């Protein structure tokens, strides 16, 4: 039975675990391996790891770090950051990663999406769109940690990426990153209408009810969160956490009519 996925999202910068606010001010939180071990114990639905320093610094994926993460991880793992070639992606898959996330390269070399889908299957190819509101309405897509504008309609891009062979779309809201005030449901609605692919949403979650409201409106969807699963309390003390089995069940029974 298909169900909504509650996904933990981790950011890596210079091999350390960090958390940003509106894609700025990365706060160092510790060793990412420790977070993975705790998420193993919490039986997380899925883990997404994004290296936010790779593309910006002109570096490829840190294969040793990815290997360590994959060896430790006991849940489906998605990795993104610095991938520009089919050969790099294939090596990462060989290390035990289930999904590859593409961002900047999807705009500069969209053929890579099709090539990867042909090689490994569309279900393993994820496209991440980092978006924020434009001053006079609508949304724009950014790369390089929110520094470079693409200047294109994200919803048209989503449809185009589906045609190229992508298997999943992640819509990441820069404006809401780290704010913990809830998802931008209007943004999600527009993205949902643009594609029939599995859709994951990231940016803004402050509590489990925010996830519940997303699931209530959109049903089977990926509800991803960063701050919610690495912070605790108003002062944002560092604490790796995730809802237990009963909490997830109660949440889905309340908002998704899960029997």
From TrEMBL:
Gene3D superfamilies on file: Aldolase class I (3.20.20.70)
Reactions listed under catalytic activity: 5-[(5-phospho-1-deoxy-D-ribulos-1-ylimino)methylamino]-1-(5-phospho-beta-D-ribosyl)imidazole-4-carboxamide + L-glutamine = D-erythro-1-(imidazol-4-yl)glycerol 3-phosphate + 5-amino-1-(5-phospho-beta-D-ribosyl)imidazole-4-carboxamide + L-glutamate + H(+)
Organism domain of life: Bacteria
Keyword GTP-binding: no
GO biological process, one term: L-histidine biosynthetic process
NCBIfam families assigned to the protein according to its UniProt record, in alphabetical order: AglZ_HisF2_fam
Family classification: Belongs to the HisA/HisF family.
Protein name as annotated: imidazole glycerol-phosphate synthase
